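TODO from last week: model Solute-binding protein family 5 domain-containing protein.
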Amino acid sequence: MAGAMPALAQGQDGGVLRILGSGDLGRLDPMTVATVIDNNFVRATARTLISYESSMDEDARIAPKADLATEVPEPSNDGLTYTFTLRDGITWDAPDGARPIVAEDFERGLKRTCNPLLGTPFLTYYVSLIEGMDTFCDGFAEVEPTVGAMKDYIQNNDISGIETPDEDTVVFNLTEEAGDFIYMLSLSAAAPAPVEVLDYLPDSPEYRENFISSGPYTLAENIPDVQTRLVRNPSWNPDSDPLRAGYVDEIELTFGLQADAAIQQIQAGDADMLYDILVPPALIPMLQATGDDKLVAISTGRTAFIFINTKSSNADGALADLRVRQALNYAINKAAVVQQLGGPFVAAPQNGIFGPGLLGYHDFDLYPSEDAKGDPEKARELLAEAGYPDGISLKMPFRNLNNESAIAQTLQASFAEAGIEIELIPVSAADYYSKYMTNPQNTTDGAWDIAPVSWSPDWAGGAARSVFQPQFSYDGRHQTYNYTDYNNDEANARAKEAINATSVEEAARLWGEVDEIVMADAPVAPFISQNVVVYHSDAVENFEPYALGANGDWTNVWLDR
C-alpha cells in the first residue's frame, strides 16, 4: 500500500487557492477529459485505481501508485489478468450522502467511454485490449444517443473482460499482454462512475449541475468563461487517500486573463497559480537572472507539430502528395520557434513523434537543415516536383493563447520563404480542440489545411503508445485526435511488437522504428519539444508537480499568508 508523502505532514489547512487562466475548462466529466491542463481539475475531483505522487523528483512522479486500489497488482494468467482490491473508506459525494465506491462503478465508467454521443479520446487504448469491450462498443454505436437509450444499454449489457465478483474486487481480463495497462488505469477515462450519471448526457449542463465527486474537492460553481469554484468534498476521507492531502478550503479559477496581467497579479500576491497560461518568454531570462525559484520548468515529453490535412481538397488536394508534406517539414525554422519560446530552458528542435524522455525517442532527422533553421530551397524543389512551381496557399488555424499567435506568425514566415502562403485563422483557446479541431466536418470540408497542435503523453512513464495510438493509427473507428484517420500497417505491426517487448531496450528500439516509419509518411511536421514553464506566488508552499497535469498539484499545496 502506498504511504503518505513525507511533505504532507508539514502542511497547514485553510485558505482559497486562486488560479488564473485565459480560456475555460474544456471538460468536467472525467470520462470526456483529454487535455493536460484539465487533468488538474480531475486530480481534485475524481480518483482512479492508479495515479501518481506529486513530486519535484522526475523518477518519483512517473511511478504508478495505488489510489482507489490498495496496491499496484502484478498480473496473473500469463500477464492477461489484473485483479484490484478497493480501499476501505472510499466514497461518492452522492445526493443522499456519502456512499461507498464499489467495483461495479469501475465497469460502468468504462462502459460510458464508447457512448454514441460524446465518448473518450482514450477509447483506442481499451477497446481492443479488454476482452469483450470491442463487442460492447460496437453494439453501443448502434444505440440512439439519448439519455434513456444509453442508460438502458449500459445497464443491460456487460463487458465480458471486466469481472466484479464482490463490491471490493475488480478484475480485468486482457486479449494480449500489455506492460502499460497499469498506466492506462491512471487516465481520467478509467475513473469509476456513480449510477446517477446515467440520468444525464455526458458533460452536459445537467451533468455539471449534479456533479458527483470522489476526490477531496467538488464543484460548487461553474460560470463558463468566467469562474469555476471548488470546495471541500464532505464525503472525502483523507485516511483513504495516500496521494492527496487537500490542504486548502477552496480552489477558485478565474478566466479571461492575458499572460502579463496574470503574472503581475501573482507577483503582487493577488493570485497564486496559473491554469492554461505559460510564463511569457520575455520574462523568463529576467526571472532566471534573479534566481526566482517560483519559476518551474516541468518536463512532460510534450511536443508541438503541424498536423497536415490530407483530406483537404484545397490547393487542388496538394497535401495528399508526399512531396508537398515533405516540403512542409523542410520549410520550418525550428530554431526561430525555440528562441521565441525562451531558448533551451523551455524548448528544443523536434524531428519525430516521440519527445525526449519517452521510450523510443532517439536522435534522427529525415528532413534535416543546418542548425534546424529550415531549408526553403529544398522545400521549393519538392513543391516544383509535385507540380507546384509557383507554390501553394493553405489555411492554418491557431490557438489565440499565450504566445501562440507569435509562433503562428513565425511559422507563416518560414513557409513564405518556401513559397507556401499561409492564411492564419485565430481560434479561442477553449474552442480550438474541443470544438474546432475535433469536429471531423472541419477536416473533410477543408476548414483547415495545416494546424499547429501539441501533445503530451497521456500517462507518465513508458508512454510511447499514448502518443502513437490515438494520433497515428486507425482501425475503422475514428479517433478524436487522429484528424485524418492516418494509418500505416507496418507502423502498427512494430508498435504491437513494442507493446509486447520483454525488455526496455527492445521496446525502445521498436518504438524508434515506429517513429521513423511514421515520419517517412510525413503526416505531421514536428518542430519543437517543450517543457511546461509555470509560476506561482510567494504564498504557495509544497509546489510539487503532478505528472498528468504538468503543474503544481492543487490537492497538495498549502498557503502561507
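Done. The chain is about 30% helix and 20% strand.
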